Amino acid sequence: MNNIVECHSLGFSYAEGDKKTAVLNNLDFVLSPGETVAVLGKSGCGKSTLLNLIGGLDQPSSGKILVNGTNISQINEESRTQLRAKTFGFVYQFHHLLNDFSSLYNVGLPLLIQGDNKYSALSQAKELLTRVGLEHRINHKPSELSGGERQRVAIARSIITKPECLLADEPTGNLDTTNSDEVLELILELNKDNISSLLVVTHDRAIANKMDRIVTLENQKLSIS
Predict the structure, then answer these.
(1) For residue range 58-90, what is the model confidence (pLDDT) as tens digits?
(2) Domain extent at residue 201
(3) Number of folded domains that form the chain
(4) CA–CA distance, 166 with 18 (Å, rounded to integer)
(5) What predicted TM-score, i.e. pTM, was given to this entire model?
(6) How far apart are CA 153 and CA 159, in angstroms?
């Protein structure tokens, strides 16, 4: 069985005029099926960059990333988009919900984009919203929801396609302590039920300690914590 993700000698730099700034350098990482891993590090150390590279949203400057054995730098954008949609679900610090759509349509949208039947997509969305405790908020738009409720909608949206791996970027960073604890437990519970992998980037050791494994991003590389 392939690893979900493999990073080999991964490097990433960005240019500012004639100057290049290295964010990641010669980084190696492996994520196994069903494994939960936290990437721990200070703000600005490159955690989000690493997540975007793994998700195929950015391209590495050097090295390679394999997703289910496929080098994502060697396939075209359309194939990369399809692989990303099939493999990953994304949860961000900010919910990124569509303001003009209800909770129901926000959650069902990934299935609708894939071409699923509308009734089936919305039925599954309703089921997930019920699962995350928002059955009474399915027709509410994001502006009518609390921060914790918006993040619950975002979590439901991220798992509706039953991804093989959930990528979470500071998923509780915009919430108070109570909502943070509830949202993290929800992510872990739903991810376990889906038997998928989970990769969380965070600066919070308490969140990291709930994962199977912790690695620290420091000085452009990962080390075991």
Answers:
(1) 889 889 999 998 899 888 888 888 888 889 888
(2) 5-224
(3) 1
(4) 36
(5) 0.87
(6) 10
